[in-house]
Amino acid sequence: MKKVSTLGVMLTMAGAAHAQTSVTLYGLIDTAIAYQTNQIAATNAAGRATRAGNAVSIAPGFFNGSRFGILGNEDLGGGTSAVFRLEAGFAPDTGVSLQGGRLFGRQAWVGLNADYGQITFGRQYSVPFDILLPFDTIGWGNTGASDVWVQLLEGSRMDNSLKYQQNIGPLKIEAAYTFGEFAGGASAGSIYSAGVNYTSGPMVLGAVGQQARDPNSNKQSNAGVGAAYTLGKVTLHGYYLYTRRDGAFAPSASQDFVPTYGTNAQFYANPGVTNIGSSTAPRTDHVFQIGTTYQATQAWVLKAAFLYDAARQVNAAGENGTKLAAFLIGDYFFSKRTDTYLATSYNRVGATMNGPYAGRNNSLGVFLGMRHRF
């Protein structure tokens, strides 16, 4: 990160001799050469896969979405600061903006930080995303072989959000409310959530709950718990996430969920899917991940993890489904800011959930990547 002091400019413009303002410019680029099996090779007029094949490409990185951002802080006196963050995501292979082409699609918020905590307003990470992050082996990775699947269930970012954060000794407390902004009903499109992390020496524990309503007041509910423990060079990670969605749940544009079943206009727009159809019954997902990080040397880090999702009422026929994912990573750090890695991943899904792999039920991926922070 590079800090740019704007103190002199602010003193001149605002005439506030006591104010101290700083702006941090930062970013991260993560990209990889990727080999993946069972990718869509051709489609018919209806958009359904007619041929699958293996693919080699320059792809977004395995670990992180690439981004650049601006973080600001102004001392208002009395222990209170004004804070803001603007963060844009982009594809490192093409340079195009991500998050639907938004200018600041990753984060865009402003607020106040004081002894009583921090209150912020705008597009922000969800509370489940923040609270469960320490328990995920690769920190909500950037590949469908690991954690993107979970982010679809609990949502990574929410528009129109009011968020509160506070640290009290070993406790980190978060709560948020997302305004649906639909006329005629305050609850339509809204989300409320709360969670806590507890840190004691080498151990971290966490718990979180969230409920979302779509524009028609159908509900999605999440609950999650996690734990991490460090013993010497080894850290053990694990979490459990429960999700229940009403059969008709259809998130609004401001809710960063992707429906896990529905019509072609929703998640099953993927042309590889063979089991299209809306379920009228609530769908439930029970997601587990266990993993470990081994700090072999100051430069070498090894990671391994296993993820399993047991889903119920996956499609219109009321069938159940499963997803299994595993990955193994070797990561070498040239410095604190630059590393290179070799990651392997394997996905396997039940027949009712075979959409992501061009109509097949599995995919193997190998990623040779490089990551740089600035």
UniProtKB/TrEMBL annotation:
Family matches, as InterPro entries: Gram-neg_bact_OMP (IPR050298), Gram_neg_porin_domain (IPR033900), Porin_dom_sf (IPR023614)
Q: Looking at the record's lineage, which domain of life comes first?
A: Bacteria
Query: Keywords assigned by UniProt?
Result: Cell outer membrane, Ion transport, Membrane, Porin, Signal, Transmembrane, Transmembrane beta strand, Transport
Q: How does it sit in the membrane?
A: Multi-pass membrane protein
Q: Where in the cell is it found?
A: Cell outer membrane
Residue ranges of domain Porin in the record: 9-348
Signal sequence span is 1-19
Say where the protein is mainly found.
membrane
The reply to whether Ion transport figures as a keyword in the UniProt entry is: yes
Cross-referenced Pfam families: Porin_4
What's the subunit arrangement here? Answer: Homotrimer.
Task: Extract the PANTHER family matched here.
Answer: MAJOR OUTER MEMBRANE PROTEIN P.IA, PROTEIN YDDL-RELATED
User: Per its record, how is this protein called by name?
Assistant: Outer membrane porin protein
